[in-house]
Amino acid sequence: MKTTLLKSEDYTRSPWKNGGGIFTDIADAHRAGSPAKDWDSLLWRFAATPIVAPGPFSFMPGIDRLQMVVGGRGLVLKAPGQDFDEREPFTTVRFTGELEIVTALEAGPVEVVNLMARRGAAEIELLALREPGERELSAGTHLVYAACGECRIRVDDEDFAIPGEGTLKVELTAASKLALVSGLAVLGSIRLTG
C-alpha cells in the first residue's frame, strides 16, 4: 500500500474542455510516453468544480463520467430523452461524455466532484461515505476526498486524518479494507483495465 496526502493548496487549475468554467484538478493519470498531458492522453481524472450558471457540458467522446454534488443543491443534468437528478447532495450520476447535457440549477450554484475515465482503459466508482463503517477496497487507486471539513479514515490498521478539501490517494496492489471513522468523505475508485 502506498498513500499520499494531497493538499488543497497543491491542486492545479485548468479550464473546462469547452472553456465554460475552471476545474480544480485533484489527481489524474495519462498514458505513459504521451508528449502532452491533455484530453487525448487522459486515462482518468478526479476534479472538483463549481457550476454557477446553467449551460452546456463539454463534449468528451470516449470518456465515462461520474459526478456528485458536494456543495449546494438543486442540480439537474438535462440530456435528450433523460434527466440526471442530482438535487440531493452526495448522489452519484453516471453518463457518457458523448451526451449532449445542459445543466439546470434550481437553488443557485453548486460544487461538484467529477471522476472521469477513458472508456476501455479504466473502471471507476464514486460514492459518499457518510456513516462510520468498513468497506472492501479492490486493488487499484482510491481517492478519499474530505468534501465537508476534516474526516478520519482507517485503511487496514493505519489511521489517517484528511484536512478539509484534502485527498488521501491510496494505491493498492491487493484488496484492503477502508473504514470511515469520522466526518464525511467522497471515495473515488479507479481500476485500470487497458
From TrEMBL:
Tell me which Pfam families the record gives.
HutD (PF05962)
Q: What domain of life does the native source organism fall in? A: Bacteria
Q: Which InterPro entries match?
A: RmlC-like_jellyroll, RmlC_Cupin_sf, Uncharacterised_HutD/Ves
The protein, known as: HutD family protein
Tell me what organism the protein belongs to. Bradyrhizobium xenonodulans
